[in-house]
Each structure stands twice: as structure tokens, then as C-alpha cells.
Structures
1.
Amino acid sequence: MNNKPKYTLFKNASYAWDGLVHAVKTETSFKIELAIAVLFFPLVYFLPFELIYKLVLIITYFMIMIAELLNSAVENVVDLVTVEKHPLAKAAKDIGATAVLFSVILHLLCWVIIGVEYFA
């Protein structure tokens, strides 16, 4: 049995929109990251950095939000599959959290490198 729906651009876009709405309603970390993005993106626009540096900062911030969404997806699947505490369930959730952490570290490193380059 194939439970995969027929592909249409608008239907698939609606799935993405539904996922975004669900994340905003249920994921506190994502809500915080989204609120920061609303403030952060205009700030980056007005910084006196070159365009390429601004793009790096925006892209790496998007990577944080993408990692957070993927982490939330993993956590939802793990919670669906088991209600028991299982070492593999914990490992899956911890690895997802590590992906978010690494994306944050990458973003902060970009800020440091760009800041040092600009202010040196």
C-alpha cells in the first residue's frame, strides 16, 4: 500500500506551511529563534559589513532554524514510536540537539570571524 499523496506544488507548499504553523504553535525553541530572526535580519541589513558577510550571517542563522525544525521532527517521531525511556530514543534526541548546538556554534564563529575582520 502506498500512502504517498499525489505530488502538486501547491499541496506540498501547504504541507510546509502546516509544518511551520505547527512548529510555531508547539516548539518553544523555534518560537524564540523566529522572534530573534525578526529582529536579527533587519539588523544585519543595516550593519556596515560587505554583502557577502551579511549573507553568511543570514544563511548560518537559517541553518540554526533548519536544524531546530529537523530536531523537532526527530523528537516527534521518537515520541510517537515509544513512550518508554529507551537509550536509542535518548540518543536520537540528543544527536538532534547536538546538530542544533553545532549550527549555533557555526553561526557564532562566523560572527567572531567577520567581526575580527571588520574591526581589525
2.
Amino acid sequence: MSAKLVLRDKEYEIKAGMTLLDALKKSNIVPESVIATRDGEMITDDEVLRNGDVIKLIAVISGGSK
């Protein structure tokens, strides 16, 4: 049982049943640096990942002037 995180051209295979937050940490992805979507819908950090899920991660770019 597994799910996938997809960030740009990288794929991370993770165990289903863990939360998105745990999956991101396990994959060494900073949770605040991405927005996660499943089937085009945004999901939150406490969402439990199901077998077969493909979670697309969108990098958040921050910056600007002071």
C-alpha cells in the first residue's frame, strides 16, 4: 500500500495511512514550501494519504521587498 508525492520532476513513494505532514517530513520536503493537491483539490497537512493517491506538490515562491 503506497501513495506518491510529485514535486516538479521528482516522485516520492510513501506509505499510505500517514498524514501529508508526516509524508512531507519523511521525504525531506519543507511543509511550508509547498501546496498539496489531490485530484485538483487542495488538501491540508492533516489529510491521511490513501493507497494509490498521487499528491501533486506545487512549490510556493515567496519573496519581495522590505
